[in-house]
Amino acid sequence: MSTMNTVGRPTTPNAVGHDYKHPTLTGGRGLLQDEHLIFESDGWGKTGVDLPEPKADGSDLGDLVRRDPIGLPGLSEPEAMRHYVRLSQKNHAIDLAIYPLGSCTMKHNPRLNEKMARLPGFSDIHPLQPQSTVQGALELMDQLAHWLKTLTGMPAVALSPKAGAHGELCGLMAIRAAHRAAGHGLRSDKPRNKVLVPTSAHGTNPATAAFVGYQVVEIAQTEDGRVDIKDLEAKLGDDVAAIMVTNPNTCGLFERDILEISRLTHEAGAYFYCDGANFNAIVGRVRPGDLGVDAMHINLHKTFSTPHGGGGPGAGPVVLSEALAPFAPAPWVVSGEDGFRLEEFAEGEAAQAFGRLCAFHGQMGMYVRALSYMMSHGSDGLRQVAEDAVLNANYIKARLSDLMSAAFPEGPCMHEALFDDEWLKGTDVTTLDFAKAMIDEGFHPMTMYFPLVVHGAMLIEPTETESKQELDRFIEAMRALAQAAKAGDVERFKGAPFHAPLRRLDETRAARQPVLRWTAPEGSNIAAE
Amino acid sequence: MRYLPLTPDDRSAMLAAIGAKSIDDLFVDVPEAARREGFVDLPRVAGELQVERALGAMAGRNVAAGSVPFFCGAGAYKHHVPATVDHVIQRSEFLTSYTPYQPEIAQGTLQYLYEFQTQVANLTGMPVANASLYDGSTAMAEGVLMATRVTRRNKAVISGGVHPHYVAATETVVHAVGVETQVLPAAVDAEADVIAQIGPDTACVVVQTPNVFGTATDVTKIAEAAHAAGALLIVVVTEAVSMGLLKSPGEMGADIVAAEGQSIGNALNFGGPYVGLFACREKLIRQMPGRLTGETVDADGERGFVLTLSTREQHIRRDKATSNICTNSGLCTLAFTIHMSLLGETGLRRLALLNHEAAVKTRDALAAIPGVEVLTPRFFNEFAVRLPKPASEVVERLAEKRILAGVPYGRLAPAAGMDDVLLVAATEITTDADIATLKSALAEVL
């Protein structure tokens, strides 16, 4: 209505200036605000929290009191809201569009989980309250353990690891403890000091194995993207402590010979560590326990939907076989006739526990979210999760394979589709350029250059929470870009992104001259440090 | 199922496009012996209402800190968190994004991490801080490992005032790689005892201030002794708010600070997720664990931020990485940085004084009870008392009266022979009425 606008003029596109492209005068662009650092605000001395005037002055602490300025600006509430909302608008998010980062499982994060985790009975309890006052929390941990054990077909679970890599550490330390108990510790006469890791593994696998003191030996991969059994057999021996295999593997393929792999491993006296990052592909359809797995971490922030939060917090409970269960770290929940009890020390029957991985009991906030997710799906819904995740990935693979080169074209993939850069040969466009052009089209790029075994890898994991419509939109964009690359539209890729909040960033400069914090400009009277 | 968008028609059309007859065709690589027909033995799909009821019932069986007079600390503290914090961290763009691997569309995360690193550096009085670790205890373990890399020595001397869980978490990890530890006996006020233990093989000395008994210590002399012997000083802080009142670890000569940031912006959460703060001297940055955000420019010369120095990290260096950490505490760092931005220096200092004030009042009240001996000489917001009875028994009795009176030290270290010691914390949430209730109830049960 014209009365809505006091000037009363309906807007129509102007003929003049139609092709005029220019940077804006202020750095802002439409809804995208140019936002300074909090340290560049005028908030020195300000506070956005109203607190009573303290009566204490700290004089009883004498010389212990901090006298110099700390260097912390303050913002009023409206300023703080604007600052963070402006920043937020520079982020891609699952809630905005498909986030097909292979091996990261960026699925929808249900808001019911957030609501449950914020119930005061879970969020507002102290880890060291008397156990009689946290029976519901211990019950929740016990329930979560029950679901995880049942879904994996494993007899035990250590809940406390705080992320996937922490879970790997937990699993390998249990393995180390078991070998030591059997007289094959690292400093024994007959040490088992090697861990076999396929070349396609996540970087955390060799990093963790080395961290724990093992020598990392790589296992070759076959042409069809699986563990080379012959190479494995040749390298297995009485000096091998464990193999670390991801299944489905990082090429998005199920290890067909997995039963043979675990048989050979066990025959050699080694343990089978499974990286459970890709459990989403098989949950409800395959139980790792049936594959001969001895230890597997489960990223609750992948398969069980706890939010990634820009890089955490995660949670990495580790399921364990009978052989490794006695070595699980403290603490753990025991249920008895008079309720639940938290065992916090390695003593008595649990004397073989390898120690403690962190203060307190792990990521309770993530446990609540994961259980809320599992209860919502139920056993039927979780099986459907795996099926839809695998269906979505195969659909993408089928619809892009005529234009792009699938790394392993034969047979189905699991929950992620892997392409190499063979199809870009002669275009002068790289995997990186292609990824940056996807940003211009409104999509988050797939995982690039991983796994390392595939040249110019593009690993696409859609997850089950993408609709067919969103998949089609993504596929059409990928096809259009592929056609543009092949048609020689190189500029579109080399300079990309053009439409993101920032253009391509200079990462070399950041590493060469690290600037890791804000410091007051010279001559300013702002006190920082 | 409400989270699954595909319809049966979608599934059929997609299977046709793939050229598969049924979903089973896509699982052919699974060995037959491992294929499971039917559903695993767990409940079936449930609506929001059912899940809310089930979880709500479990939550209802716990005593929430906010519902009773509350005095627990020992590494986890209840503070008031402004409403803005929880609102912002639930924004989709922060909650549902990944580690910022594509900086062009992750400047929101990268900029707040840069601001967080600066806040942590200034708060700890250190030149640089990383983008967080899992929690304070794992930060301490990483600090010890880092010190062994820097000094090429193999032993850590740990004060008896360090939180026993922190010591256990550290020993578990560092012993695995052959690093030796020497932990001094538990003592309320003896941080300086580490000095006599420093030798030519000492990589680092680890002290905590305020320590697990609440004692605040000027560690300057310990730093000097460590440095004179070529060792590093690691200062552990489990209550981040304390740095708003007490001299910073940097000012006292720390080389590495490993701290728990839960106190600022984050709820108690029964122990996690929390946020490990990690800061160090500038010359040590290439040995630092965890993610780092750095400033740079884009193709147009605009300032921007990226993850940097990743040649230290597992995804590049694999078995030669400085640490295996990947996912850290992203959203908890956001909560920390928002709360800190709201407080500012003015608010933080005030908050710290209010904490100290509440703890002094609580101490004075308990000291007046016959049989109660206050052990901690100088403290921030927590202190230890000796009771005439086992502390765990007293805490149970008071819990029956709906008072959470503190943490028995014996729960953290059963073998220390200090079962009669109770750790009592007070913060800005502690009211005069809470203190009076605790005082009369404690007097009654003793």
Concise structural overview:
The complex is a heterodimer of chains A (about 525) and B (about 450). By secondary structure, chain A is α/β, with parallel strands linked by helices.
Number of strands of chain B: 13
The assigned structural class of chain A equals alpha/beta
Could you tell me the strand content of chain B as a percent range?
Answer: 5-15%
What is the string of SSEs of chain A from the N terminus onward? Answer: HHHHEHEHEHEHEEEEEHEHEEHHH
From the alpha-carbon coordinates, what is the Rg of chain A to the nearest angstrom? 27 Å
Count, helices of chain B: 13
What name does the CATH topology of the largest domain in chain A carry?
A: Aspartate Aminotransferase, domain 2
Describe the global form of chain A.
globular
Largest sheet of chain B: 7 strands, mixed
Instruction: List low-pLDDT spans of chain A.
Output: none
The first-level CATH class of the largest domain in chain B is given as Alpha Beta
